Amino acid sequence: MNPDSKSDKTPERKKKRTILRMLLLVCAGMACLGSLVLLAADCRVERYAAGRVYSDVEAIPVREYGLLPGTSRLVNGRYLNTYFFNRIRAAVELYKAGKIRKIIVSGDNGRTDYNETGDMARELIAEGVAPEDVLSDYAGFRTLDSVVRARNLFGATEITVISQRFHCERAIYLAARHGIDATGFEADEVAPRHVRVRLAVREAFARVLAVLDAEVLDTKPHFEY
Fold first, then answer.
1. Which of 41, 111, 132, 136 ranks highest by number of CB atoms within 10 Å?
2. Does residue 28 form part of some domain?
3. 32 or 52, which is more confident?
């Protein structure tokens, strides 16, 4: 055995430890930067949406158009999606109270076997909304698309977004950045805790993307008209 083997390895071990510390510092710095970006985007959205999301039908101002963003009717193709049905109920409540006169249903119909827009329209009509008051947008692939196309297709420069609060806030922000005066009406958010946590994480990143789309990239809808 070489008596100097231990001492020979010491500098190498110190070098590895130094590299590891540097990597940890870089990772910590990136995590801190990422947290700041998430916080900044959230604050940006919250600032635009402050005081514009309502839960009281009596308090919300009258608008010609309500915008109902799409989500799937079923979860995993099997279970009824409470987010979908709570949005439908909220839209019907506003409509019957005379707070909106037309409902734009804007969802994803990118596949023949998936039609958010058609599902929403059928539910609204079944709940008593007049068919002529349901306006369909089949290319609402993202919230940005739904908001901008509401103006481009139907001339809606003032809208009430009907969704869960977190979604209303992001839609209001996007509307404001595109010259659309938007308020929001809060649909109930009833879901198990793990679902709400997962959606909260997803929403945090969605807000970063929304700010990038609106203020950096100037992203357009997939189909503008």
1. 41
2. no
3. 52
